[in-house]
Write a structure and sequence with these properties.
This protein is mostly helical and 113 residues long. The chain contains two helices and no strands.
Amino acid sequence: MAQDIEENDADSSDADGFADSFDGEDTGNEGYHAIFEQLQHIQEAADANTAMMQNMADQSRARDEALDRREEARDRQNSLFQAQISRRLNKLESRLRRANEIGQGTTTPTQQV
């Protein structure tokens, strides 16, 4: 038990010594300090790249959603146009049938259909 406590104390003093190497004291660990700074720069660059990629993904998603909305609007417009054409064709067919009936003498122009 006493040995475990001593090992834990030794571990924490090692960690404290490592942390002290970054607080500006001249402990001979300048190499570690330089590596730590490089790691910080790498992390900052990675964070910037991640943010840029997220921004690009957001822009792409927004473009896709805008295209989907335009396509849906175009589909609705086409559907309305087709319905309008269908109504006009039905009306023309009805008039043509009526004209044929009048031409064949089965209906007079004054009779209601």
